[in-house]
Amino acid sequence: MFRALASVLLCCFFLEASFWVHFSYGDLTTCSGIVPMTERGDKISITDFGGVGDGQTLNTIAFRKAIYRIQHLRRRGGTLLFVPSGVYLTDSFNLTSHMTLYLARGAVIKATQDTSNWPLIAPLPSYGRGRERPGGRYMSFIHGDGLEDVVITGENGTIDGQGDIWWNMWRQRTLQFTRPSLVEFVNSRGIVISNVIFRNSPFWNIHPVYCSDVVIRYVTILAPPDSPNTDGIDPDSSSNVCIEDSFISTGDDLVAVKSGWDEYGIAYGRPSSYITVRRVTGSTPFAGVAVGSETSGGVENVLAENINLYNSGVGVHIKTNIGRGGVIKNITVSELFMENVRTGIKVAGDTGDHPDNNFNPNALPYVKDLTLKNIWGVNVQRAGWMHGIENATFTGICLSNVTLQGTTGPRPPSWNCNAIRGAAIEVSPRPCAELTSVEQSGSCASHS
């Protein structure tokens, strides 16, 4: 199945944007060259440190010993930690700089379901508290803080979060702290994640936060459609992030760009910028490509192209709220195909909750220069829902060459708009009045 999906991904057309630096390998346009893959001269195996892949032995000590060795011996060029075929049960663990975690074919690193010993760490400063619960948060299953030059790769081995116990705690409202992500890097740079399957994350799957120069490519991310908050990839207050050639099917947004939560994100003030999402296929009850809703540090210069969605909630979702502050600008989505989707395009200024009652209701977000072009949808129930904020109209919205066909029946899918301003060129069905005239300036000028 995945080979067939990969073939579809590689056959997608591509479109370049002038403010991105692109690298070309043959006929394939890619941004992955921002972080070259490191060849490690030193190689060790988890079995050298007592690792046992029987699915029952707890391998926490083995992983921690191996990574301690990498950290303290500091071999020139770094070290590759090899995980052979087998199922390696373990508690959460920290990575270190200048290392490669390599999963052989058939290798599974599986999270223990004993939540009582799961480490707690401080909340992110741009969130002020755990995303789900006040106070701290559980550390991600595989974690890195303040690192550089780290690779997670292999032969499509699996990192399995065994998240159902965490999902049930969320459903039963017995969580004491925010659930752990599957993989999280904080304050790190030079990160490559490729050729790995991520399965059943307790919470968000891959979360680079306060990071730069991150490449996530050729990954498969899987979770049941009813698994709560299992976002696929969430670049958060990070820059120069490349996400390409991947299949994601989860219970929440496939890719969601974030930058902090209300007054905490405003104070931290670190935007997400220069994020590329290309050749991603998947399905979700929520959004395929999302910005927000936590965008208080700002989000700018996001390019998503060659995206294929099916059986999903929303194709593109730009979402923010009063109290967020921040600026969302220069967002481009192009070459998007969707099938069996509830809403094709959603731009909303009333989405998302607040960390506490201390948010400033006068901290209004500003959304401008959204370009949505070359989009095709079939079996779309509602074409678009685009509602800005009174006194903070969303501006510079350009729809170009957008065709959204409804389900069988006489009525085409509808648009619903308020507090937005922009233009539409070759859009079917006919869009709302706020988008019917071609602007000669702003984001639609180059398409008029």
**According to CATH, what is the topology?**
Pectate Lyase C-like
Number of helices: 4
Number of strands: 30
Give me the oligomer status.
single chain
Secondary structural class = mainly beta
Rg from alpha-carbon coordinates = 22 Å
CATH architecture: 3 Solenoid
- Specify the overall morphology: globular
Number of domains: 1
Mean of residue pLDDT?
Answer: 92
Kindly report how far apart the N and C termini lie: 41 Å
What is the CATH superfamily classification? Single-stranded right-handed beta-helix, Pectin lyase-like
The helical percent reads under 10%
Strand content bin: over 45%
Largest sheet: 22 strands, parallel
- CATH level 1 class label: Mainly Beta
